[in-house]
Amino acid sequence: KDKSAIQENKAAHKKDDLKNKEKHNHVISKSDLNATKEAGEPKPHQGVDSLAKPLVKRKSGFHKVYSLDVTGAPRDAKAVGQYGNAAEVPGDKAVEAKSRWAEGHFNVFLSDQIPLDRAIPDTRPQTCSQSVVHNDLPTTSVIFCFVDEVWSTLLRSVHSVLNRSPPHLLVEILLVDDCSTRDYLGEQLDEYMKKLPKVRIIRLKERQGLIRARLAGAAVAKGEVLTFLDSHVECNVGWLEPLLERVYLDRRKVACPVIEVISDKDMSYVLVDNFQRGIFKWPLVFGWNTLPEEHIKKNNMSVSDPIRCPVMAGGLFSIDKKYFYELGAYDPGLDVWGGENMEISFKIWMCGGEIEIIPCSRVGHIFRGQNPYKFPKDRQKTVERNLARVAEVWLDEYKDLFYGHGYHHLLDRTAVDIGDLTEQIALRKKLNCTSFKWYLDNVYSDIEAHLVKAEGLMFNHGLRKCLAIHEDALSFTICDLSKKNQHFNYTWVRLLRQQDVCISPRDQQANVTLEPCDPSKPLQRWFHKPADSALGEHLIAEATTQHLCLEAGLHGSSLHLNLCEPSNSLQK
Ligand code: UD2
Ligand code: MN
């Protein structure tokens, strides 16, 4: 569908071109241009002037993507890090550079040497500079949230937006200060930004975390589209229009640029592989993977085609403002950092939208080994708690895969308060969203997502018989795959389950019986030692302090716990 739309665009563009080239450009008011021109030290480069001709405003039609501030624009070629090249710390500055690393968990010393408006290589696929977009694209507010960001990276982020975005599409840049503690981010920042009329600073009185900070920015944004960016990025040539074009084509499309790498060590701008998409692995860990070769071939995809993306990285995307609110924005109960990318991704896909990576839009980002700011509470627990909120609302019966892959302490609900989810659950219902199973089948079918960790018969090596439930009691009998009462599941949260009943020791006592399954009861959880472990294949009761093993009674009519013994085949 998109392809034919683009074909149509091209055809229309040609026809328009023949009639009257000029008419189809946008009107750009003088003040728009001045706003960027008077923008502090770094000046916008070539491209802007060609937009300045007084033109007739037209609603329809197409134009070639504006490639503002290209690499070839005049610049000091000798400047450190110019053209996205690697910078080097001079020998006598090594100590200083090292000591400043912790300010941002990247090479802050070098960042401070590099011009705030440096050129970076145009890394777009070749066809991108020739592609056409609508004349009447929606406008956008760019929202940067930051806490204790390094001065030079924050400013370089802002200037890259001002220099490389068509002024008529950029309504404003909102800087949401999430209660930074560094002095320079106060008055000094206010002073600097006074020179940039498009920039507004919003100060949060208390630290809110990036999720609620984004919500604060979105709430006051005047653009039709919200474009979120991290505060240590460099937007590349022509980055904005391809994103807005997708939103224009369908307001339920959420468009992400390709995120390229600004090296944390030498600040060089590094282009990334083609056909990358965002995915997750259990337990909801974000990652990248390459589109399968067959998929690329089958769909005859070129390197510049939009890529359907199961999960967004989180930081950089454009979304129709009204649509963002129709979706209920972010769960405001998510704290500090993490998990919000999963939340918004599941929400978008399951409630009628789409997430795409747009290869013609590219933004560099400094990936850092550590968060350079403090977490008010424990970092790991904060992220896990956020993810648990997401899992509870969106994962349906698959949430066990989340809980079973690593977050053991989350199983004990009393240990972690994940907060109230009533509103989030009601929202999902109101939006009439599909199931998580639908998402897995239709959006991310290559993930492994078996509902249980193992299923089948529980064969006891000592008795050479299988466990069965007979008249509500456990006993061993001749193995028969066709008998339902011999089928057990070993679940991701480590229950041994048949239908609704689970194998459970009675109050740490030796006798083992059946109880209604309750994943919150540690007593029902069994740790499975694989066959190649020193002990051999065993099932260890997790709640018992001495690690007791599940053992068959000698005559096969019972099950009990006993001290684990590698040689005891009744335990295998
Ligand atoms: C990635 C995303 C980030 C976010 C995060 C998960 C990219 C490139 N980055 O991690 O946007 O989705 O995953 O939550 O996709 N910040 C605040 N207040 C806070 C903490 C952070 O304002 O309490 C700001 C921070 O200054 C930065 C932005 O939020 O501008 C994202 O934080 P990050 O750069 O530490 O996240 P990152 O890139 O590791
Ligand atoms: Mn970041």
A few lines on this structure:
The protein is an alpha+beta fold and 572 residues long.
Care to describe what's here?
This protein has 15 helices and 26 strands. A five-stranded mixed sheet has the order 5-4-3-6-13, with helices on both faces. Strands 7, 8, 9, 12 and 14 form a five-stranded mixed sheet that branches. Strands 15-19-20-21-22 form a five-stranded antiparallel sheet, with no helix packed on it. Strand 17 and strand 18 form a beta hairpin. Manganese (II) ion binds next to loops.
What integer is the average pLDDT? 89
Listed once per kind, the bound small molecules are: uridine-diphosphate-N-acetylgalactosamine, manganese (II) ion
Main beta-sheet strand count, sense and barrel state: 5 strands, mixed
Strand content: 15-25%
Helix share, percent: 25-40%
Distance between the termini: 58 Å
> Rough shape?
elongated
Labels describing this entry:
elongated; 5-stranded mixed beta sheet; 572 residues; 26 strands; binds manganese (II) ion; disordered N terminus; alpha+beta; 15 helices; binds uridine-diphosphate-N-acetylgalactosamine
Could you give the topology of this structure?
Elements: H1 2-19, H2 30-37, E1 62-64, H3 94-100, H4 108-113, E2 132-134, E3 140-146, H5 151-164, E4 170-177, H6 187-194, E5 199-203, H7 209-220, E6 225-229, E7 233-235, H8 240-249, E8 253-262, E9 269-270, E10 276-281, E11 285-290, H9 293-298, E12 307-308, E13 317-320, H10 321-326, H11 340-350, E14 354-366, H12 379-394, H13 399-404, H14 422-430, H15 436-442, E15 454-456, E16 459-460, E17 465-470, E18 473-477, E19 488-490, E20 496-498, E21 501-505, E22 512-516, E23 526-529, E24 538-541, E25 548-552, E26 559-563
Parallel strand pairs: 3-4, 3-6, 4-5, 8-14
Antiparallel strand pairs: 1-2, 6-13, 7-14, 8-9, 10-11, 12-14, 15-19, 16-17, 17-18, 19-20, 20-21, 21-22, 23-24, 25-26
Manganese (II) ion binds at residues 230, 232, 315, 365.
